[in-house]
User: What shape does this take?
Amino acid sequence: MKDILGIVGGMGSHAAVSIFQQLINRSPAKKDQEYIEIILHNNTCIPDRTEGILYQGEDPFPELLRSVKLLERCGATVIVLACVTAHHFADRLEESLTKARMFNIVRETVDYSCRMYPNIRNIGILATEGTCKTGLWKKEFDKRQINTIILSEEHQNKYFNNVIYGHNGVKAGYQDEGLKNNLLEGCNKLMEMGAEVIIGACSELPLLISKEDLQLPYIDSLQLAADKLIEQYYCNKG
Assistant: This one.
């Protein structure tokens, strides 16, 4: 029996549209009936993940739980969070499911990175403050004896936070060359710190940068997730 994919969106909405579009654009389907069956819950009630995790803001978990349970009731058999920082709650969310399973973008990306670059020892993580400070990627790469490199607090604010969260940032609907160049400068800083590969570990990044923009190998975790979900769907399709 084929899978039905559920997407928890709203973190932000542009990122949810981006992964949905990638799932369509990168699919091998030749007619309407061959595309992945997808249910998207664009839950704009989910509080900011970084604020909730680090700064005693409103807890995102209840709304994330509402989304995954809703998607499961609607028939989703595989559920993906269209936000990397939200994976801080992924294991707790999976425990709540009875029929569906969670697709974990972080673990899938770590597995892929280690297969593709088996000799790499230093990986740069371009991600939100919440993702970096909780060690979401570090915990997984530590198991493989691989070092993770993140931006300094100054560079995180200048080259990432302002790009994503600023008044004229991505979450406000802006996508321009200035924002892109700031992200690329953040990547350059990671490279200067010794990164041999960079992981784009935020769902908004595909809206601005791609591997063609960088000199180092660059892994877009959302694009990788789309490719893996497509692969799993067509392998399991009955």
The chain is about 45% helix and 15% strand.
